[in-house]
Amino acid sequence: MLRAPRAVPAWLAHPFRWQRLPVPWAAVARGALCAGPLLGAGIATGHPAPGVLAALGSMLAGVNDRPGTRRTGVVHIGLPALASALGMLIGASLRAVDAGWWVVPALFAVGFVSGAGSVAGPVRSNAGMQMLATTVLGAGMPLPGAPWAKALTLLAGCLWLLLLRLVLRPPRPVGGALSGERAAVATVFDALADALGAAGGPGAEPARRRLSAALDRADEALRLRLLTDRLLRRPADPDELLLAERFAAATALCEASVALLWEARPLPARVADSPRRFAAALRTGRPPGRLSAPETSTPGRGAFDQALLDAAVAFARYEPQTPFRPPRPRPGRPEPARRGHELLGPAGRDYGLRVALCIAASAAVALLLRADHWYWLPATATFLVKPDLGPLFSRTVNRFAGTVAGVLVFAGAGLLLTGEWWPALVAGVGGALLPFATRHFALQTVAITLMVLSFVYVSGAREAAAERIVDTSIACGIVLVVGHLPRLADPRRRVGQRVTAALRATERFLRHVLTARPGTDPAERLALRRAAYRALGEARAAAETAAAELLAARDRNPDWPAVVTAAERIVDAATACAVRLDHGARRPGTEEAERLCRALLAMAGALEDPGRRPDAGLPDVELRADPDCATLTDVAAELESIRGHAGAG
Fold first, then answer.
1. Radius of gyration of the chain (CA)
2. Does residue 517 contact residue 587 with C-beta atoms inside 8 Å?
């Protein structure tokens, strides 16, 4: 009898996953013009130390040089740059006063702040990681200069890449000056076309998630643009307002499309072709052309055709219809309050303690092994314990493999190349590789290792390449042990907070749909839906990472990805319900709607407490069929699914 092949465990398969992403050629060009030339300038002028610091700053900024508009680039690169300069100031001050073993408690404190801040979003996570990394490097690298001068030189290197980001960009499209923002909105229409093409098939839900991510990026780009104008007290440009109107039309069209996706019926190809015409119109400035003919076979299709007509009207206008209005605040808990709650909550405290222990232990071991060049070991641990780069075991394996490969390539380059310029050449190659290397953590480690070894070589440590492999091995062992301590590795603390926030955002949207009176401003509903999808996206990323952790299968935890999937379906069902209500469907009973909303809140509360059993306190959900509002049955079924998966394990 043949045995069925056993599935490879997620923690073992994750190190081999490779992201399929387009090559960011503009970022590759910027990377080639940063670390290598700055290091070469330091060598040429006879001042290698400033060259090393400036190149180091540009390398750290290059890690954050991701696709997006110029304004999002300023935020995503600028905030970590300031944090990096602060870390260098702290580390260089510790070295200036010859702190000795006092550097261990100092790194523990910085590590705790860095780790706790990393749960408050990706930009703050990158800022915290880079602040900790530059603190370690500033305290350990034997470079001359005052602490403030080192910090300013590092910041100058970061700002050099940011300047290139603002200057070097793809050619502007024909349709106008807002290239970055218009490209983001065009991507929304492309993602919508992909989602409509996948309707009724197995790829419908992943396509809808990609659509939600595209909406988030476009929303962020437009908010930054409008907020910049408001802060500078500059009147909004008509092109900006016109683009905002077209994005609003895209958002309404996406809402109607979610109702079509919920019906789970394959759609004609001409339906998906219409959003692509809008995307092409945004990129070229030409009219969108002929759109799909209207059809009212289902409420979802009728709503889609009406939204399509509204979008066509928005694209036919060449002057904005509405005056400037500042961006609406996101519903729910205010952003600073919510982030502050995360920092001070169990997830922030536990992750801060995890990072602090790893860094302090690595620094103590490094100081015991050698007095000079001890910084590599805690610097390696810094990049290993970062939460949003993947599961801990996967990061450890890829970090070790990437370091070994980088050391071998650097050693080979040293044998083949001669003169004093070759480290700058290697650093330039690493800088050009860095944007492409975001596809895989091991490849990213290769690029960073090439650049850091070039910096170390120029700063005087020319025989230290072999020590990097030994230090990396020790750091990987320390992080694996400390990172999997029972309390610090509990996914209920790290993931439960995200899932709970997502369930509560889902409940706010569901309650609004089921209880809002006719004639209510649809902008509030759209904002609540966007907030729910945004929270669900954050929860899914955390859940998928936790599911691939080494000890995930041994813990009795909820099936987090399944819980998030059920919550996503509730938002989709509520969206379909809103579309049906707009087209004359009977509004559900108040008592039934309140019962479902209370059940969803009760489940969020039961999952929030890390010390409670996964299935404790989850309410029973009674399924009821409602011929006039099928959404209630759909929502009740997904609530029952959440209850079942929350008790999994």
1. 26
2. no
15 pLDDT higher than 90: no
The residue-averaged pLDDT of 229-236 equals: 64
What confidence tier does 55 reach under pLDDT thresholds 50, 70, 90? very high
Instruction: Pick the more confident residue, 152 or 557.
Output: 152
DSSP 83-146: HHHHHHHHHHHHHHTT-GGGHHHHHHHHHHHHHHHGGG-HHHHHHHHHHHHHHHHHHHS---S-
Kindly state the tokens that stand for 154.
Answer: 């590092």
Nearest to 126 by CA among 116, 115, 118, 136: 118
Of 316, 278, 309, 279, nearest to 293 (Cα)?
309
- Cα–Cα distance list, 317 to 243, 244, 314, 326 (Å): 11, 12, 6, 21
Q: Which residue has the tokens 């700055």?
A: 38
Q: How far apart are CA 36 and CA 10, in angstroms?
A: 38
Residue bearing the bigger pLDDT, 333 or 539: 539
| DSSP-derived 3-state class of residue 205 | helix
Distance between CA atoms of residues 15 and 65, nearest Å: 23
> For residue 149, what is the enclosing H or E element?
helix 147-167
Rounded to whole angstroms, how far apart are CA atoms 535 and 604?
Answer: 13
Tokens of 338: 């919510």
Mean pLDDT (the chain, rounded): 80
Whole-prediction pTM value? 0.81
The runs of H, that is alpha helices, within 317-436 are 335-344, 346-369, 376-384, 392-416, 422-436
What pLDDT, on a 0 to 100 scale, did the predictor assign at position 160? 93
Q: Do 138 and 90 touch, CB atoms closer than 8 A?
A: yes
Task: Decide if pLDDT at 629 tops 70.
Answer: no
Can you tell me the distance from the alpha carbon of 462 to that of 411, in angstroms, rounded to the nearest whole number? 11
Encoded tokens for 495: 């993931």
End-to-end alpha-carbon separation of the chain, Å?
30
Mean pLDDT of the region 311-320: 83
Q: Are 453 and 467 in contact (CB under 8 A)?
A: no
Helical ranges in 548-584 per DSSP H = 560-582
Residue 414 Cα distances to 141, 212, 457, angstroms = 22, 47, 10
| pLDDT the model gives residue 307 | 86
Q: Cβ of 492: how many Cβ atoms within 10 Å?
A: 23
Check whether 157 has a pLDDT greater than 90.
yes
Coil, helix or strand at residue 198: coil
